[in-house]
Write a structure and sequence with these properties.
The protein is of the alpha+beta class and 706 residues long. It is built from 23 helices and 23 strands.
Length: 706
């Protein structure tokens, strides 16, 4: 008979083991760590938050803000567990108004990563930098002191976490790929950027210059949603504002109407400014939209609830992802009623966006050679002659009919314009201080990089949309970015601001080495223009803190363009003098003048966005920047005098004239709907730049029943 086993001895776990276990409850993945750091920055009163990521946050996760910073004397304990400036006693939990309160976030990160904090308060004469491990100060290098060291820095705090989960290999292996982890990070940043419309957010990968998310502090909530989630969502949002004194809460929301749907619900839920999850609220929203959307379709909802802190228990989960609140069922029902009432009242605005278009795909026919029927039905009789009056005739009778008639199609270079139109365009150029150069013999391009870029555009072509633009009839401009066009029996709303950028990119590639020339009446000082652009971006809060001064950046860009002057002249008809002045620009469409207000930003982006080191990279990025500069964008309105108003009206009228008579005719002959545009559609039948509004056959059926 065997003797019973003796019970194991109970021992106290080592503190490092306890801390790593606790850290694992809070920091599941890089996105959780970033959420905690963003909330700390918001609690610090930041208006700018910049995020830098490498390998999905596992190799590097850095956040920099311009908040109030951390005092030098507090840096010794800032990464210890249960150290916080937001909570003093347990009763404070009943009225906590900050995002964080436990004092565990930074401590948890320091137990699973190498943490460096650089911070400066407004009262401090310099910044201080310190390195942390396992919640304690450690020397940055062996043999050095662990005390915070003075250094240069701006007001605010920069926290860098490197090698996340380096000492927890099982957790690191369980994570998704770096790209998946980065997508989770972008989701967190997107949510907080939408909710905190007064804060500028920037998020990018290390080694890249372009940010994947970049918002400005002056943007509204809808503007931020448009920038991050797209215009197709933002254009269909309905605001919902309600207050419920009896339940001690108020709500603010933007919900998509019945014209928008997607495969998966997008729910941005905030309770007392914290991004949280709630299964009951999610089920409620699904129930509200069940009767409005087709089966399998889901809405976009941004919902912010401000509940009396006494009624909310935030101390439910270490990650603060879940909260409990009193009268939850009544609160959810109240929100449901508010949503239903708003959506029902919005039905009257759905006059032109008919329900029959929602579940289908954009009706863009592929080219077909099928013979036309001998007899045309009444509902197939449409206007197809572009020489007839456009919609502008009926909206503004004072405009001369000559201005409203379609001109001959331009060819993208220096050909195909009627003689009288050419004369008028030259006069216009002269009046703006620009003159076109005499046409030169066409040069055959043999550069492999340019030929490959042309092939890439053609390979990604969406033939249906290309055919639509090749045979469209211009109806009229809706505003400074949208226009109506007709193709066969359908009416479409086109974002020509987006489409024209792709048009000009293709023109640059197709007319490489063969541009006309726009000579500036006065050479432009590149350095001075770049300084203007930097100053404007700094006022908007769009620029990160620079390592070099604005003068150094402007000089570097000017020197770069001077050193590349021969290439710019030969390939792009851009004349740059030895003293750093720009004398000419390429003419992409005959008679077309870009909005010259964008010239300083164009010159700045030539220095920051163009790959000057490789042939293909240089030609592609430079073509993209020329396209951004030349794309349709209205002039800026400056000044309040009557003279300023008159000048703006003339420039704006010229802008709309160019859209109708130069850009849209070029869509007919020189535009390929590449995959960047044509394959960006969603279930509702909307792409980035074209939306079907009506179909004659469907409208005929509706009116036939009336």
């Amino acid at each position: 008979m065997t003797s019973p086993k003796s019970p194991p001895t109970i021992k106290r776990l080592e503190q490092t083991v306890v801390n790593r276990i606790a850290a694992g409850e809070i920091i599941h993945r890089p996105a959780n760590a970033l959420k905690e750091l963003i909330e700390n920055s918001l609690d610090a009163g930041s208006t700018q938050i910049q995020i830098l990521v490498k390998d999905g946050g596992l190799k590097l996760l850095q956040i920099q803000d311009n908040g109030h910073g951390i005092r030098r004397e507090d840096m010794g304990i800032v990464c210890e567990r249960f150290t916080t400036s937001k909570l003093r006693k347990f009763d404070d939990l009943s009225q906590i108004a900050t995002h964080g309160f436990r004092g565990e976030a930074l401590a948890s990160i320091s137990h699973v990563a190498h943490v460096t904090i650089t911070t400066k308060t407004a009262e401090s004469k310099c910044a201080f930098r310190a390195t942390y491990s396992d919640g304690k100060l450690v020397p940055p290098r062996p043999g050095q002191s662990a005390d915070p060291k003075p250094c240069a820095g701006n007001d605010g705090t920069q926290i860098t976490a490197e090698d996340l989960f380096y000492n927890v290999p099982t957790r690191r292996k369980a994570l998704k790929s770096p790209s998946e982890e980065y997508n989770r990070i972008l989701d967190i940043v997107s949510r907080y950027a939408v909710h905190n419309a007064g804060v500028a957010f920037t998020c990018r990968k290390q080694g890249t210059t372009a940010a994947d998310i970049q918002t400005i502090s002056s943007a509204s909530t809808v503007d931020t949603i448009r920038q991050i989630y797209g215009s197709s969502v933002a254009n269909e949002l309905l605001p919902v504002e309600r207050e419920f004194p009896e339940l001690e809460f108020k709500m603010s929301a933007y919900v998509s109407n019945a014209n928008y749907s997607t495969k998966r619900m997008t729910l941005l839920l905030f309770i007392n400014n914290r991004a949280v999850e709630s299964s009951s609220i999610k089920k409620m929203i699904e129930g509200v939209y069940a009767a409005l959307l087709p089966k399998g379709a889901h809405p976009f909802v941004y919902l912010s609830l401000e509940i009396n802190p006494r009624n909310v228990d935030v101390n439910v989960h270490p990650t603060k992802r879940e909260v409990h609140f009193l009268n939850e069922e009544h609160v959810v029902n109240a929100v449901s009623d508010a949503f239903q009432n708003r959506l029902e009242n919005a039905n009257t605005s759905r006059t032109f966006l008919t329900q029959t278009l929602l579940p289908g795909v954009l009706d863009i026919p592929e080219p077909s050679s099928a013979p036309k029927p001998a007899k045309v039905a009444v509902y197939n009789t449409v206007r197809t002659d572009g020489r007839l009056n456009t919609l502008d005739t009926f909206l503004d009778p004072s405009v001369p009919s000559k201005r409203l008639q379609s001109t001959s199609s331009t060819d993208g270079t220096n050909n195909g314009q009627e003689q009288d139109d050419a004369v008028s365009q030259v006069d216009e150029l002269n009046s703006r201080g620009m003159t076109p150069k005499v046409k030169r013999p066409r040069i055959e391009v043999r550069l492999t990089s340019v030929l490959n870029l042309r092939k890439e555009v053609k390979r990604s072509e969406h033939t249906g949309i290309t055919a639509l633009f090749s045979n469209h009839t211009f109806v009229g401009c809706v505003d400074d970015a949208l226009a109506l066009i007709q193709h066969e029996r359908s009416l479409y709303l086109v974002n020509y601001a987006v489409a024209s950028e792709e048009l000009f990119y293709q023109v640059v590639l197709n007319e490489f080495c063969n541009f006309g020339r726009l000579n500036l009446s006065e050479p432009v000082d590149i350095r001075a223009s770049v300084l203007l652009a930097i100053e404007a971006e700094e006022r908007k809060g769009n620029l990160p803190d620079q390592l070099r001064s604005a003068d150094e950046i402007a000089k570097a860009i000017s020197d770069t363009m001077v050193s590349r002057a021969e290439m710019l002249e030969e390939y792009f008809c851009m004349t740059v003098t030895e003293d750093g002045h720009l004398k000419s620009l390429p003419m992409l469409l005959r008679g077309y003048i870009p909005t010259m207000d964008k010239l300083p930003m164009f010159l700045l982006r030539l220095g920051t966005e163009v790959d000057w080191e490789t042939e293909r990279g240089c030609f592609e990025t430079l073509a993209r920047e020329l396209a951004v500069f030349f794309c349709a964008e209205p002039p800026l309105k400056v000044g309040e005098t009557e003279e300023d108003e008159t000048l703006y009206k003339e420039q704006h009228e010229r802008y709309l004239w160019q859209v109708q008579h130069l850009i849209f005719p070029s869509f007919k002959t020189h535009f390929v709907a590449s995959g960047r545009l044509g394959k960006s559609g969603d279930e509702s039948g909307t792409t980035k730049f074209i939306t079907q509004l009506a179909n004659l056959a469907d409208l005929y059926k509706i009116f036939e029943r009336c």
